[in-house]
């Protein structure tokens, strides 16, 4: 399949400074190019979805965007602030939920949020109020009452406490890697409501996901990434071009067809 | 079923790096040979009885608790078979049988068979008792080893497991630092033991009560013509072995109950953790409080602390056994304080990929708060334990003259150790298995042999002013010089902690993402700088980790190639 050229970037509304801008961002691991000089712009106030197959480079790109992984080349700017030349100012604006990384496993959710709030130098009362509110809204109060440690949390609960750490200091941009993974439907609704409120208040969200229907339902802008390259980028309608996002995704990324004789033994 | 599990175990062993196993086999072979040799050169039947009962007890204890430390590769883990439709009893039996098929188990059997030498020398006919006796003892101690391991809840799942693992590490440390004391005493006394055996009847009858001694007793009874008594002892040994097997099998099968333990008791309300407590409500206070919780709740960190404490206790106890050296016992607490440096020199690696929080939360003061908070956290965890060990052994050794020296040496050592630890932990970060995947007691860190030497070197240099003052005090003791030495020790401690911490802060401020990269990706994505000592240590430790990884991959590839060739 020949990848189609990327849809030209739509300029951010009003020419405002993008909430996140990746310019020529690149990372190799030994001989493998994980992220191949990508350009992306997330307009302020937008709900941006980054979709791609496993190993496409989503996590690597987002890790470079938030200051966790040094790029080989290129820049990452948060509201115009370069993450790698002015990390302190950029990180003040950022809330991050990475995928698959450890947390201080021997703290309870409440202790983790309290530590994080203090570490972020928030006032004591603000930390206490926000911690209590986040634990209540994300339904982690019972686990807290039982003294359950983060290391004992289920995958979904870990996502929720991770989201709480990302939100606690009230950032302007949320970068969330697979935020809905393993989250139950009720909590997913709460999550969506929180993120919607965040964007309504002027914040910007970028999420990565494999789930096309979810991205279609949530995001106003989408980028499809595969083999480290951006294959399409724009508003949801621009990218899906009249069809569904999944069809467009399969069309750009390709699929493995199951031949008649493959796995014939299944169910026999 | 049993054959398949044995085959799986051998395959697993083939596909893992041998690590320290060959060294263990060599040591085990030497000990087994020593057991036989000691039995052979014993001065008489009574002496041989003493040597064998004592030796077999040590073998039994070693076999029973050894697997706690060797729970890594090669052990078939019950969870692998949780979803297979195999009857639990058959699986448990198969897993138990697979434990007997190993070089370590074979070495235990060789050592236990030393009883056949006793039989041959007493009356060769009694070999018919000695060999089944040795086999039954072997079945018993190996089943016991699985029982102990199972009861420890995979060693790290319970407080008692952590404590037992710590005692073993503590014994190892004490052996390394003060092992020469019992060895010298043993050398003085060994000719007596070999010539006459243990002459204290209470000790002899105590040893005879251990099931590991029963094969020896059975041989002796048979040699006296009391074949009924011999059979009775073998029967009792068989019962013990059967009981150990029956108890061990259910612990070997996959557990269906949740692994996690809920912490019950004190309610941890958000208000309480956010608003109360003795620690300052600052960025540094937040890190101290997080570190104190991690040190007191993380099994791997608890092992580090408790190993140091037990190491100090055993060193003190060893020193007290010698009339000439008992004054050394008063300084046991110094060992615990020194071990802070070793225990905490892996603190960033212990956090694993959770270090991402330090990276994304970086602000103007966060690195300083993180480094200082970690230093204070480690000191606060070790301080009460050091004081208890010190007080205990000063009292037991009655070496009151050591108190002024301890007043200077303890703060100096604490400060130097906390500074050296945080610097080495940051510059030479050595990630082990990420926190959520840890199982065995050694999972938390990678290869830290170089780190240990650097910590020892840094501490030695950093406490030089206090050491100088102590030497001066020893040469010309006086009250005012003792007071001055204590003041110098305190200033030395704070100075060393501040300076080494300051260097760490400078290093991390520029290289925080690299710290994360080393943990997450095993490499640094920055042009290597080789201008100073820190750069040298950073690249040496990184290279060490990468080479170890490459070596493991190559060994694996070679083994796979060999298997395909066959």
Give the assembly state of these chains: heterodimer
CATH architecture group name of chain A:
3-Layer(aba) Sandwich
In helices, the fraction of residues of chain B equals: over 70%
Supply the number of structural domains of chain A: 1
Question: Would you count the extended β strands of chain B for me?
Answer: 0
* Gross morphology of chain A: globular
**Poorly predicted runs of 5 or more residues of chain B:** 258-267, 269-275
Mean pLDDT across residues of chain A = 89
The total number of structural domains of chain B is 2
Query: CATH homologous superfamily of chain A?
Result: P-loop containing nucleotide triphosphate hydrolases
Biggest protein-protein interface? A-B, 51 and 53 residues
Write down the secondary-structure element order of chain A.
Answer: EEEHEEHEHHHHEHEHEEHH
Membrane topology (chain A): Peripheral membrane protein
Keywords (chain A): Antibiotic resistance, ATP-binding, Nucleotide-binding, Transport
Main location (chain A): membrane
Protein name (chain A): ABC-2 type transport system ATP-binding protein
Give your account of this protein's structure.
- The complex is a heterodimer of chains A (268) and B (566).
- Chain A starts with 19 loop residues before the first strand and ends in a 15-residue tail after the last helix.
- Residues 1-14 of chain A have low confidence and may be disordered.
- With 268 residues, chain A is an alpha/beta fold.
- The relative contact order of chain A is 0.18.
- Chain A has ten helices and ten strands.
- In chain A, the strands form two sheets. Chain A has a six-stranded mixed beta sheet, sandwiched between helices.
- Chain A has a single domain (13-253), classed as P-loop containing nucleotide triphosphate hydrolases (Rossmann fold).
- In chain A, helix 7 (185-200) links the parallel strand 7 (173-177) and strand 8.
- Chain B is mostly helical.
- Chain B has two domains: 2-252, no CATH class; 281-562, no CATH class.
- Chain B is built from 24 helices and no strands.
- Chain B starts with a helix and ends with a helix.
- Mean pLDDT of chain B is 83; it is low at 258-267 and 269-275.
- Classes of the chains: A alpha/beta (268), B mainly alpha (566).
């Amino acid at each position: 399949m020949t990848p189609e050229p990327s849809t030209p970037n739509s300029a951010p509304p009003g020419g405002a400074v993008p909430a996140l801008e990746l310019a020529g961002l690149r990372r190799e691991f030994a001989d493998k190019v994980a992220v191949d000089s990508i350009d992306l712009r997330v307009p302020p106030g937008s709900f941006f979805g980054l979709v791609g197959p496993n190993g496409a480079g989503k996590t690597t790109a987002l890790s470079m965007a938030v200051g966790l992984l040094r790029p080989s080349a290129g820049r990452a700017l948060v509201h115009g602030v370069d993450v790698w030349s002015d990390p302190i100012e950029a990180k003040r604006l950022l809330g991050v939920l990475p995928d698959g990384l450890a947390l201080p496993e021997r703290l309870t959710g409440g202790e983790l949020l309290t530590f994080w709030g203090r570490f972020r130098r928030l006032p004591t009362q603000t930390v206490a109020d926000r911690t209590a509110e986040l634990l209540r809204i994300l339904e982690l109060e019972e686990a807290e009452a039982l003294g359950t440690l983060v290391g004992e949390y289920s995958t979904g609960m870990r996502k929720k406490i991770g989201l709480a750490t990302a939100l606690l200091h009230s950032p302007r941009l949320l970068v969330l890697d697979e935020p809905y993974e393993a989250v139950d439907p009720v909590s997913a609704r709460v999550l969506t409501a929180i993120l919607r409120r965040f964007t309504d208040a002027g914040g910007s969200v970028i999420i990565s996901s494999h789930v096309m229907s979810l991205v279609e339902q949530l995001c106003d802008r989408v980028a499809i990434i595969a083999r480290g390259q951006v294959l399409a980028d724009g508003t949801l309608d621009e990218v899906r071009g009249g069809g569904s996002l999944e069809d467009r995704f399969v069309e750009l990324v390709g699929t493995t067809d199951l031949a008649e004789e493959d796995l014939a033994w299944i169910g026999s | 079923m049993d054959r398949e599990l044995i085959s799986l175990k051998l395959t697993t062993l083939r596909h893992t790096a041998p690590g320290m196993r060959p060294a263990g086999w060599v040591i085990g072979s030497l000990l087994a040979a020593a057991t036989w040799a000691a039995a052979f050169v014993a001065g008489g039947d009574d002496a041989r009885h003493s040597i064998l009962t004592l030796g077999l007890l040590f073998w039994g204890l070693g076999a029973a608790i050894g697997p706690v430390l060797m729970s890594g590769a090669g052990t078939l883990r019950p969870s692998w078979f949780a979803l297979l439709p195999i009857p639990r009893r058959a699986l448990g039996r198969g897993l138990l049988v697979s434990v007997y098929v190993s070089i370590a188990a074979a070495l235990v059997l060789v050592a236990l068979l030393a009883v056949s030498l006793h039989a041959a020398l007493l009356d060769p006919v009694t070999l018919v008792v000695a060999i089944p006796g040795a086999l039954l003892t072997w079945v018993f101690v190996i089943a016991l080893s699985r029982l102990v391991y199972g009861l420890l809840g995979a060693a790290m799942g319970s407080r008692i497991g952590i404590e037992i693992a710590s005692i073993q590490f503590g014994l190892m440390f004490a052996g390394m630092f003060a092992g020469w004391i019992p060895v010298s005493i043993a050398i003085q006394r060994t000719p007596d033991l070999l010539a006459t055996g243990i002459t204290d009847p209470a000790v002899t009858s105590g040893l005879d009560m251990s099931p590991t001694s029963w094969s020896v007793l059975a041989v002796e009874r048979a040699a006296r013509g009391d074949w009924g008594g011999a059979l009775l002892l073998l029967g009792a040994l068989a019962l013990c072995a059967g009981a150990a097997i029956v108890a061990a099998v259910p612990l070997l099968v996959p557990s269906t109950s949740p692994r996690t333990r809920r912490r019950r008791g004190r309610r941890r309300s958000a208000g309480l953790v956010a608003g109360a407590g003795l620690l300052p409500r600052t960025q540094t206070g937040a890190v101290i409080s997080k570190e104190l919780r991690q040190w007191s709740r993380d099994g791997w960190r608890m092992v580090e602390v408790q190993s140091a404490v037990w190491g100090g206790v055993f060193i003190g106890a060893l020193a007290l056994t010698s009339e000439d050296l008992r004054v050394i016992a008063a300084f046991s607490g110094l060992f615990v304080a020194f071990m802070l440096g070793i225990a905490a020199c892996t603190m960033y690696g212990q956090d694993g990929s959770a270090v991402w929080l330090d990276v994304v939360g970086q602000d103007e003061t966060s690195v300083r708060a993180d480094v200082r908070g970690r230093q204070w956290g480690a000191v606060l965890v070790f301080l009460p334990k050091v004081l208890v060990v010190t007080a205990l052994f000063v009292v037991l050794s009655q070496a009151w003259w050591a108190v002024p020296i301890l007043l200077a040496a303890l703060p100096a050592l604490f400060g130097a150790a906390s500074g050296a630890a945080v610097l080495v932990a940051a510059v030479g970060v050595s990630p082990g298995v990420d926190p959520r995947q840890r199982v065995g007691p050694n999972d938390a860190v990678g290869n830290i042999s170089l780190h240990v030497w650097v910590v020892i070197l840094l501490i030695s240099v950093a406490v030089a002013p206090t050491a100088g003052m102590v030497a001066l005090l020893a040469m010309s003791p006086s009250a005012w010089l003792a007071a001055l030495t204590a003041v110098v020790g305190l200033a030395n401690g704070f100075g060393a902690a501040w300076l080494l911490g300051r260097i760490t802060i400078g290093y991390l401020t520029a290289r925080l993402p690299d710290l994360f990269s080393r943990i997450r990706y095993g490499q640094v994505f920055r042009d290597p700088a080789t201008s100073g000592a820190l750069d040298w240590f950073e690249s040496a430790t990184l290279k060490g980790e990468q080479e170890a990884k490459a070596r493991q991959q190559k060994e694996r590839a070679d083994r796979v190639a060999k298997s395909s060739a066959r």
